[in-house]
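Support request, please re-run this one:
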Amino acid sequence: MEEISVKLKPQQPTFEDDKGETNTKEGDGELDEKITKEKGQESEQDGNKEEDLETNREDGKCFKQDTSDSKNGSLNKEDSSLSGTKERSPERIRPPAISSVNMDLFIDNKIDKLGCLNDLKQIEAMAFFKRLVDDLMTLDYVVKEDPEIDLRSLLFDNMHDVLTPGQDLCDEINDDEGSVDSFTDDNRDRFPTLLEKPMSQLKDEKRTDRNSALEKLKSVSNEQLEVPLRKNSRIDANFEDASETAFTDDDFRRKSGSYHQNIDHELCTKIIQKFYLKQAPSLSITQYLERINKFITPSPAVLLSASYFLFNVAFDLKPENNCSLLPLQSPPEEEGPIKMTSVDSLDIFRLVLSALRISLKLIEDKNFKQAYYCKITGLQHIDDLFKLELAFLYLLNFNLFINEFSLTRFLFQFKVFDTNLRRYLKSRTV
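Re-run finished. Output below.
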């Protein structure tokens, strides 16, 4: 693959304070007021498009609805004029703080109870995205301290144990603060709601395999060994436990497929340099995401897609495009070790804005203008936003395929990664 050349003008971060505001020529606080005003004008224009009078269609003709109570109509007009109030566009409700979501409880318990992706709230999806960002930055720090760390095990080990929790995992989760009711005796060993169907299919396949193995043994006994089995033979009892055994990583791999290495890691290292700032902004990544959530409020689908893209970029992974809901397994070992692309305080801001911008364009029909998005995310030039989007697409190798299966699968994929990372960090502190 030929090396691409994307030139970005180095710029100082535009964030200078801790209140989520940017320093511009308009003065402190004027940017937020201007942004809110622009959004109010958009909603007011949409409201003016509605018809003042209701119309009914009959025999292919439109006519005004007959209003016999015209006096009441004029009375209402007088009342409104006396009150001296004008109809205004409703104020936009600001989303709650991201910290209002208990992510430990959400990952350990709530994800397993989701009936469908529509049950995911917007603030929960944003907190999920922030948790991914925090995990990637934490892992990047660990990798720089210990370059020989096994990323494959952190990403994919204990897959079936996390998704089908046993006694050890339940006790470990219940010991965590704020998640005492995560697992009880009634819901132990139950599969997540979204995975119940594929898990039941795996059970049926294992049961079918058990029955075929039993019939094969019987035929061998009758034909080759010439030892006929009695009708009251208890040989079936030896296979009863086999049908209820826990799933293994091989079962997941056979059903769900695996990742593959994406593009050359050295090329990714060169491309990622396009996302670096000269210095880290004084604004924290949490405040940065709060600002984006305040003025853009991305939908859950956009946030899940952005998380999905950012995860694949961080580890140079390309998922198989199939219709299974089961999480993917690690890439084949012959493709080499998994390496992590640097995700730190200098490049995370531009990686976040690029992932969200691409997801907005891909998922949503109505998008914000480039200039508006630059104001929110602190970019000084619109051209830089286009170049960042292009560089991020090259990091993804233009693998933008997304559907309900891939987003659902990623929820549990991240649960495995987050659980393994927490266990690893806990073992380091002991």
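Strands lie at 55-58, 61-64, 259-261, 317-319. Confidence is low (pLDDT under 50) at residues 14-28, 42-90, 177-189.
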